[in-house]
Amino acid sequence: MTTKITRRQFAAGTAASAALLAGSAPFNIVRAQPKALKIGSIHPRSGYQAQLGLACQRGIDIAPRVLKQLGMNAEVEIMSADTESNVDIARSRAEKLINDGAQVLIGAFDSGQSAAIAQVAEQKGVPYIVNVAAAPQITEQGYKFVFRNFPTAPMLVGDGLNLMKGVFEKSGITPKTAVFMHCNDTFGQSMAGAIKAMAPRFNLPFQIVETISYDPQAKDLSVEVAKAKATGAEMVMPVTRLNDAILIVREMIKQRWEPKIIMSPGAPGFYEGQFYKTLGKFSNGMITNVPWYNPRSSITQKLLDEFTKAYKNEMFELNVGFSFEAVMVAVDAFNRAKTANGKELADAIRQTKIENHVMAGGTLEFDAKGQNVNIRSVTLQNLDQRPKVVLPLEIAEDNLALPLQSWSKR
Amino acid sequence: MPIELVFTVAVQGILTGLVYGLMALGLSVIFGVVRVVNFAHGEMMTIASYAAIVAFGAWNIDPLVAMVPIAVILFAVGYMLQAVLINPFINRPEHSQFILLAAVAIIMVNGLLMIFGPDARNVLVDYALDSIEIGPLLVDKVRVITAALALLIAAGLFAFFKLTRTGRAIRACADNYLGALVVGLNVKKLYALTFGIGSACVGAAGAMMTLLIDTTPNLGPAFTLQAFVIVIIGGLGSMPGALLGGVLIGLSEAMSGLFFAPSAKTMFGVGILILVLLFRPQGLLGRKI
Amino acid sequence: MISRLVDGVPRRALILLGLFLALLLVAPLLVDGYILSILILVLYFAYTGQAWNVMMGFAGQLSLGHSLYVGVAAYTAAALYVHFGIGPWAGVWLAILISVACGLFIGFLAFRFGISGVYFALLTIAFAEFTRVGFDHFDWVNGSGGFFLPVTQYSVNDPLNLRGAPVMFYYILLAITVLAFLFCRWLLTGRIGYYWLAIREEPEAAQTLGINVFRYKMIAVAISAGMTALSGVFFAFYYNNLFPEQIFSMSRSIELILGPIIGGIGSLFGPILGAVVLTVLAESVTEIMHALGYDIPGIKQVFYGLCLLVVIIYLPNGIWPPLRKRLGLGDHS
């Protein structure tokens, strides 16, 4: 994986604090011109976000093979680190990766951890590509070395609400009332804030009759669902993680509540492998408006093949796609810059212009703040127990099916 | 707010509370006798949940059946834990015991993570999504069954402590440690037995819990805290108190979720805890401390 | 006053302490960014452990909710800075004040009603949890969405606003830790230290001797909360983002107290040694696992747990007391 010598030296060096201080001097690595680009991949692979961090890691791990198939000069060395779902550890792991010679960092799924890593990367002048994290603040700090190939919460919500209108138009079903349920964590609150701020501008045909926020650590959502059911809303708009998405649907079945539409404005949950495994036939019908891989893209197909070969039991989803693209951006920039020098590499990343890539939307490029603003959400519907693109029509895999089928008739 | 809604939510809260109560009962029994606070309680429950998931996945055994062997296994785990690790710590200060069990908890949570990975697992029995109509109320079938079983197990445990020789000997240890030593009881063995019984309770609760919620390795600490809150409200060491505390927490969380922000409902549980600690520190049904 | 600090301390101990301090002073010149970030963590845990130790080690009150003081202070200073442009060195006073007020509130309720031992410990957890959920809904600091401090380029160190490179943070933290060490030594050798000792060992006897137990417990809580507040302010300005889930979490409180317990409760050097041992242990385990090619999530924490078990079973008073005996440093460090 990484340079073993420094690791062994380090392990010896940390045996005691005195030795730690004395033994560390040789680590001031002189960075020689490398043949291979050293990519530091840093994700929560243990702790409460572990399952998602591991999904990201898979996208990174298979990227070099796929890029080679695409004919790119992809001599890379992946160095992996675990944030343990913890902000402090994210920070010291980022320092460690850079010390061990990482020339570009990719991570970190979580906004807090990403923000911590961004500071380190900026200080050290090492480019950092955020693969997944939606808090707008990360690209609002004026950083020169931080890039994000993932939408911010307002971008997600804007696309999510826009696509809703398309869904109503296509299906001919326009709900008059909706209930908004969201997980009260960092992501959920960013999304709730964006919805509150943006909904009035979108002339939505429905009225949000109740907003229900729940504890991310909740183990039981029966009360929340009972409360939502009592509003009699025609549409449910959930912003969830995975486990709470399962809990909500399961409670809806138990409480025999059948709204016409269940549509997420842009959150995980409904399209994840575990959701289908757990709910089986009850997983069909839910809609998510979310950035997704473009099923028509040739690169997506190659990536998908390689992914299925490498991980038979895992699902290919957006975390994998965005993580792959982050490696693609790094490799592409490295090939153009022909150096791993931080500043030049960052400049090359800033000039990224990749037309043909994995995720739906326009050209992969970054604005002055380092944000990719061309990512576009699609409408996914769960059909035949897997997520299928139903809108926009150009890349649709199947037809939208609404209203939601009754639970008891499945 | 429709009155049926309030009643439905209340009934669900009470039913869930009974299962929490069973979990907390284990903690209460252990503390009441051994005077050691089991900081690895929730983690032990998660182990039981995984055992039930494995049993269901491999041999298709219903968790309500698997519950029995799992309780036996957890009894053994608890017995060994007390006999090997905790007994030497009985006379050590509280913070030492705390670290010991916190270390055990860390090993358990991460051991589970190593073996099962971070994904949430669950058990999908045929009746998992059924509901029962009681008049205008719609009640979750699984909750009714698990709550009834929790009550049954609790009743069995009461009977054990009241009626059997061993049960009475254990209570003697709890009441008077020195006295029990003087009359020649093997206190260390009784302690181990108690820890085993408490663990068996949590084993049964863990198996049942797979029907109610999805299991992840990280559930442990949250359940440890939950069990503490319940036991202190009911009274550390009081068995009926644990059940009462469970019901109270279940009900208060349900009601506060209904009438206020659901995301803040754990505040109400903790709020009750703070009030109880201040005005009745021995807990609602606890003996004076 | 200085004589009181060094009275009865063997010469050897002073020399060793001086050498240790000198090593810490020159450390940033010798090490790279990663080791520096580890050293900052070590000092952070050493300082916070020292603060916790005032309450537990000196006065015998087990708090498992110290993340409350860290979090409240971090949020106070950060909010003052973001909303009103008040710098950390001005904001820290309000942060300390609020933290102390929280501590006194909990202490007043607990000690008035005679809550102690396990019950007190659980009360502290309960308050921390209560505050965590409260902050999740506190819109002024962006609730669970997280509160971000503006980060500017680190071209110049600005110690007045705590904006700058890690080296600056290192030295500030080192200074705070040294001051805390001296302050604790001063406390322990004074009358209050002996009162605490009496309260810790024999509360009833202390009461009969006419020591105002309630008052001295309250003082311990206030000092501990106030000192912890400082590490909260540091945390806010070093990490620049705050999340209630992280900063108030129970695991955070536990992390803070493992150091002093492993190092040796009630001793002055214990929290420092504990922080060094734990942080180095955690990092080495990660490295060794990595070097051996094991990449299984959770394996590191399991090993960490096993090490904790071994220490607590075989060294009941922590590492420092037997170590200082071996080094011949007397019983008062």
C-alpha-based Rg of chain A, rounded? 22 Å
Terminal-residue CA separation of chain B: 42 Å
Strand percent estimate of chain A: 15-25%
Helical residues, percent of chain B: over 70%
Uncertain stretches of 5 or more adjacent residues of chain A: 1-33
CATH class of the largest domain in chain A, please?
A: Alpha Beta
The share of residues in helices of chain A is 40-55%
Strand order of the largest sheet of chain A: 7-6-8-9-10-11-12
Order of helices and strands of chain B: HHHHEEHHHHHHH
Features:
heterotrimer; A: 410 residues; alpha/beta; Rossmann fold; 2 domains; seven-stranded mixed β-sheet; five-stranded parallel β-sheet; 12 strands; disordered N terminus; B: 289 residues; mainly alpha; two-stranded antiparallel ribbon; 11 helices; 3% strand; globular
Polypeptide structure, described:
The complex is a heterotrimer of chains A (410), B (289) and C (333). With 410 residues, chain A is α/β, with parallel strands linked by helices. Chain A is built from 13 helices and 12 strands. Chain A has 2 domains: 36-152 and 295-376, Rossmann fold (3-Layer(aba) Sandwich), CATH 3.40.50.2300; 154-292 and 378-409, Rossmann fold, CATH 3.40.50. In chain A, helix 12 (318-337) crosses helix 13. The longest helix of chain A has 20 residues, at 50-69. By secondary structure, chain B is mostly helical. Chain B is 75% helix and 3% strand. Chain B has helices spanning 3-34, 41-59, 63-86, 94-116, 141-163, 165-175, 177-182, 187-212, 219-234, 239-259, 265-279, and strands spanning 131-134, 137-140. The model of chain B has no long low-confidence stretch (mean pLDDT 88). By secondary structure, chain C is mainly alpha-helical. Chain C has a two-stranded antiparallel sheet. The two termini of chain C are 17 Å apart. The chains are: A alpha/beta (410), B mainly alpha (289), C mainly alpha (333). Chains in contact: A-B, A-C, B-C. Chains A and C meet through helix 1, helix 2, helix 4, helix 5 and helix 7 of A and helix 2, helix 3 and helix 13 of C.
